[in-house]
Amino acid sequence: MQLNAEHIAYIIKDLHYRGIVAEGIQDELVDHVCSATENRMQQGHRFIDAYHDVLKSFGYTQGLRKAQFETLHAENHKTKIMFKNYLTIAVRNLRKNSFYSFINILGLSVGVAVCMIIVFFVIHELSYDSHHKNADQIYRIKSEIIFGGNHYNMTYAPAPIAETLPLEIPEVEAAVHFRERGSYLVKRETENIKEKNVIWAGKDFFKIFTVPMLEGNPEKSLEEPNTMAISKRTAEKFFPGESALGQTLILDNRWNFKITGVYEDMPATSHFHFDIILSMEGLSEAKSPSWLSNNFQTYILLHPDADPKAVEDKLMKLVMDHIAPQIAQVFGDDFTIDKFKESGNKIEYTLQPLSDIHLKSDLFGEFEPNFNMAYVYLFSAVALFILAIACINFMNLSTARSANRAKEVGVRKVMGSYRSHLVRQFLSESILLSFLSFIIAIGIAYFLLPVFNDLAGRQLSIPFGSISFYLFVIGAAIVTGLLAGVYPSFFLSAFKPVNVLKGNVSLGMKSGFIRSSLVVFQFFISIILIISTLAVFNQLNFIQTKKIGFNKDQVIIVEDADVLGNNRIAYKNEILKNSMIVSGTFSGFLPVSGTWRTDNPWWAEGKNPAQSENLVSIQNWAVDSDYLKTLGMSIKDGRDFSEAFPSDSSAVILNETAVKNFSFDGSPIGKKILTFQGDEQGFDPDKTESLTVIGVVENFHFESLKENVGAVMLFLSKQPQGYLSFRFQSQDTKAVIDLLESKWKEMAPDQPFTYTFLNERFGNMYANEVRLGKIFGIFAAFAIIIACLGLFALTAFTAEQRTKEIGIRKVLGASVTSIVVLLSKEFGKLVLIAFILASPVAWWAVNKWLEDYQYKITLGWTLFAVAGLAAFVIALLTMSFQSIKAAVSNPVNSLRSE
Amino acid sequence: MHSPELLKGTLQTIVLKVLKDHGKMYGYEITQRVKELSADRILLTEGALYPTLHKLEAEGLLKTEIVNIGKRMRKYYTLTAPGKVEAKERVTEFMDFIKTMGNVLNVQMTS
User: pTM for the whole thing?
Assistant: First the structure.
C-alpha cells in the first residue's frame, strides 16, 4: 500500500518538529520512516498506528535525534576535517586582525630568534672536548699551592709526574705532559712565519686524545727528539700541494724538526688548538728531577673502572713522598711536612675531569681562555626570559581581545560547540602563529648569527642539514604555541553564552589582574637587563679610566725583538733618532697579561730564610734602564736606574706591595734582598745572590683588575729579551708603524714584523667583560623591544575599546593631555611596580658579578634611576603614539558610529 | 535475536556484503534484507545503520544516487571499486575471526 501525499507531508512535518533537520540525513530518514510505515499498513494497520509503531522502533524523538547526531558525527568526526576547519578559521582570524597578528608574530619571532641563537651557543659550549673517545677517563692534574704569601691555582705540575704516574699507580693507563714556550718563528727555507699554537708534548698525546692522524703513525710520531706532528692546515701552509711527512721545518732559525705526523685540525670545541706539536723527548727541562717547580700541564688517562677519588689519594701520597725530601733539602733537615702546613702553606694536587675544563676551570696556565658555567646558566636564563616575554605578548593580546571574541564564543557555544572544540580552536590558532614565527625566526637568526659570532668569538651556524634541528624546531614551535595559547584558550572558552550574548562580559582593560602581572613581569625582566648592562659598562669604563700606575697610551710593542740578534741595540738607537719616538725599552715583562712572568722567593737581609714566613714570593722582572720612563711609571721613593751608576747592575727597584711584604726596618732604600742561586735543576741552598734596593715604584696593575697588585721587583739585565717597546709622541700611528717596519726590514730581513699597542693589549685583558657588556646590551634591547611591542598593541587596543569614552570626555571638555595621561596612567603604574621589584634583584645580581673584582664601582642610586627612567620613557613613548592618536581624534567620528 | 553487542563490530561487514550481493539498495531495504537473510535474528537499528552508511560513504567505499519517488527522495547506495575490494577483505577477515574464535572457544571448552 502506498502512502498518500497527505501522509507523507504529515511525516515530513512531524519529523521536522522532532528535530530531524540536518541536510543529507533528513530526506533519508523520511524515506525510511515512510517505507517502514507502508510496510506496516500493508499488514492492515491504520496509518497513524503504523507510524507510531515505526517511531517506537526508532526510540521516538530521542532515538531519531541520536541517529541524526551519530550520522553527522560519523560523517564529520574526522580529525583531518576538524583540523582543516580550525586552520581555516585561524587563518581568517589572523588576517582579520592583521595589526595584532603582525605584532604577535614579530614579537614572537624576534624572541625565538634570540632564543635559538642562545641555544646554539649553549649547546656549543656544552659540547667541548666531547669528541675525545675516552673523554670521561681523561683528567688533568690541578695544583693548588700556598707558599710565601702567594696562592696559586694552576694547571702546572712537576716535570717527573708524567713519567712516574703510570709506573706507580696501576689505574693510570697513560699520562702526557705539555710545556708551553710561547710562539715560534717557523720556516721551511728562508721566510719565517710566526706560529702561535706550538706546544711541546709527551709521546702518548695521540693515545690519550682523539686527534685523527692523516699521515704518519700516531703511536710513534712523537717518540724521537727533534720530531714533530703538525695540523693539516699548517701542513698546507708550509707544503702546499705536497706531502709534509718526512719533511723538515726550522724553528727560531736554529732547530731542525722532522715532521713525523700530520693530523686533522682540532675542532672548535676543543680546549686546545695546537698547530705544531713538538716531541717532548728533545726538551731537557722535561727531564728535570725536581718536584718543586711546576711547569707542565699534565693529563692522565684512567682505567675505565678506576675511581678518580682513590687515584687522587694515591697521587697525593706519591707526590708528597717525592716532594718532602726535596723541600727538606732547601729548608734544612729540621723540615717536616707538618711544620710546613702549620705555617699556613699548602701543596695539593687534584684531578680535574676533561669535560669540566672549558666551563668550570679558570686556573693559572690554561691553554686558552675558557668560558664560565655561570654564564651558560645566565645566557640560558636570559633566553628563556626573552621567550617568556614574547609569549606573554601573545597571551596578553589574545585575552585583551577577548571582548571582541566573546560574542564569537557565545554563538559557537549556542550552536553546540563543546568547550574542548573552542580550546582546540584557540590552540590551533596559537600554534599556527607560533609556526609562522618560528619560520621567520630562522630567517632572523640566520642574519643575526654572524653578528653574534663576532661578539661572542665563536663560529656558530644554523644546522640546516640536521634532521634533529627540524624536529627540535617543530617540537619547540608546538610547545611554544601551546604555552602561549593555553591561558587564552581556557580563559575564552570559559565564557557563559548567556552572559556574553547579553553583553555582560566586557573584558576590556580594567579586568585582568593576570594581564597586569604579566606586563609587570615583562618590564621586571627588561629593567633587570637594563640595569645589568649599565653596570657592566660602568665597570668597564671604571677599568679604562682608573689610575693604573702606568701610562698605557701611545706605546707600541715590537714582538720577537730577539731575532734582531746583534742588531738589537742598533735598531733601537736607529728608531730613537726619529723625533716621534720618545724612548724605548727592552723587556719581555710588561704590565699587561700574556707577557712574561717569573716568580721567585726572596728575603730581606738579616732574616732567616728557613722560616717560610720570611720568604716573599715576588715577580722578578728583568728590564733595562729606560723601562720606567718608557712605560710612564713613577718613582715614589729613591731613584730610577741610571747608566751613571755602574753599581746599578746589582740594584733593584721594588713596588709598594713588595716593600710592605719584605717588612724592612725603616726606609727600604739601601737595604739588601737575597735569594738562592738556582738553575733548571732547582735551587742550591748554599749559594745566595743579593740585590740592593735603590728605589720604590708606585704600585701599577700588571694583571687584570680582578687581582690585587702583587709584589714586583725590577732589576737590570745585561741583555733583556722579549719585547721592544717604544713610547711615541705623534697622532700619526701609521707613520710610527711604517718607521719601525722599514728599519726592521733592513736589519732583520726574512723575519716577520709583528707589533701591538700597549693600550690594545690592556683592552684585551677585559675582552670578556666588553663582550659580556655588548651581549647583555643586545639582549636587554631585544627584551625591551619585545615588551614594548606588546605594550604598543595593548595601548592600541585600550584606545580602541575606549573610543566612545574618549569621545564623550572630549565633548565634555577634556583636554588632549588629560586623555593621554588617562590612557598611559595604567601601564605607567605597571612599569613603576616592575621597577620597584626589579631594582633589588638587579642590585643583588650585579653585586654578585662584581665580587670577582678587587677594584670595582659602587652601585649608586643614579644607575638605578637612569635604568628606571629609561624603561619608563621608552614605555611612555610607545604608549603615547597610540594614546595621542586616540586623544586627538575627532569625537564626532567616534560617537556617530554605532 | 542476537545481542547488539555482538553485532557492533560486524555492522560494516554486513552492510558491505549485502550491497555487494544485491547491488543498488536504499537504507530501509538494507534493514529488511538483513532481517530476511538472518531469519529475523538480526535487526539493524536505524540509529546504527545510517551513521555506518555515511561513514563508509565519507571513506569513499560507497557512492550514492538520489532518486525522486513521487513526494519524497530516496537515496540508493552502491559499492565503489575500492568498496568491492574492501567488502571481500572484510568477509575474509571475518571468516578468519570466526575460525580463530572457534579455536579459542574450543580450547577453553575442552580444557
Answer: 0.73
